[in-house]
Design a protein that fits this description.
One of its GO terms (cellular component) is cytosol. This protein has 247 residues and is an alpha/beta fold. It contains 10 helices and 8 strands. The chain has a single domain, classed as Rossmann fold. It is 38% helix and 17% strand. Helix 1 crosses helix 10. The radius of gyration is 17 Å and the shape is globular.
Amino acid sequence: MGAVTVITSGKGGVGKSTVCAGLGRVLAERRRRVLLIDGDAGLRSLDRMLALDDQVMFDISDVVSGSCEPIRAIYECGVPGLYLMPAPYREEKVVSPHLMRQLVPILSRYYDHVLIDCPAGLGAGFESAAAAAQRALVVATPDPLCLRGSDKVRLLLTQAGISSQRLVVNRFHYKNFVKSGLFHDLDNVIDAAGIRLIGIVPEDPETAAAFTGGKPVSPYFSAMQAFHRLAARLEGESVPLARLEKL
C-alpha cells in the first residue's frame, strides 16, 4: 500500500495546491505511481493546475455515491505515473470522513503515494481530507498569523491520530525574510509552528504562474528544484537544506 499524505495549512493562500501538484509531479518523475486527491470541494483547483479542467466528467463524490467506478474518476495528468481524482464542484458534496477512510486505503493499493490536497480552513473539508491520512505536510509562509494557524493544525492533526507531521515553509525569500524582522532566524519560524521542518520552497512566480494557468512547468524553476529535494526527504533520503542566502 502506498503512503497517504495530507497537505494542509492553518490558513488559505499559502500555496498548498502548488505544493501538492509540484510534489506529485516530481515523485512521478522519480518513477513512482502517484495519485493526487483534490479535497477542496466547491473550490477545486488541481484539475485546472494540471490542465485537466476540460476533461473532468466525474469526481470523488461520484465514486462514493456509486455513480461511477473509481477508475472513471481518475485522470492521467500528462506526466507518466501521475493521476488526479478531482473534488466535487459543489461544497455540500464534500465526502464524509467515514467514507474517506473506506475509499482511500483501497485506492492506495495501486499507488506508491497518495497526496490529498486539503481545503483552507479547519471545518468539514479539513476533517474529510485528513481522515485517511497516515502523515501530514503542513504548509506555511514565514509570517506570524500563518504560523499561529499551523500550530492549531498541529493540534488537530494530533487529535486525529496523525503524529507524523512535517513543516514546509513556502514562498520563502531570504532578503524579504531578513528585512521584515518578524523572526530572528528560521529556528524561530519552526518554533512558532511547533512542527519539525522538512523543506523550504522559495518564492517562485514562474512556477506559481505556470500551475495557475495550467501551463508546462520547467524542472529548472527554483520551486521545482525544491520539490525534488522535498520528495527525496519524504522517501527517507538524507538531503541537506539549501543555503537560505540563495533562496
